[in-house]
# Entry
Amino acid sequence: RAYDQLKVQGLKEERVLLLDAWRVFEKAKGDAASVSAIEAKMPRRVKRKRMQTDDDGAELGWEEYFDYHFPDEQGATSSNLKILEMAAKWKKLQQEQAADDDSDDDSDDDDDESDDE
# Structure
């Protein structure tokens, strides 16, 4: 219940602490299945940067911090990643088509010049 409550409240660091304590307890008193179930819930630690500002809104510089990505919350982020992947593929396809168009134009120009000579 505590894990679910922390998840609802969005308290990531507290969830990590709870999972660590839960894992230690399961290693001491539980079996291999219960330990693996808890380890499957453990998040991935990701280093990020954000802009620091003072009270007046002036930029102070970049701050590095750690964020946690939980496996049970991957549904929301995976849809965003899919959109970004599709956009990257589309952009690459557009660039390839533009490069093909440019190379076709260049090859036509080269053929015309060689015929004139």
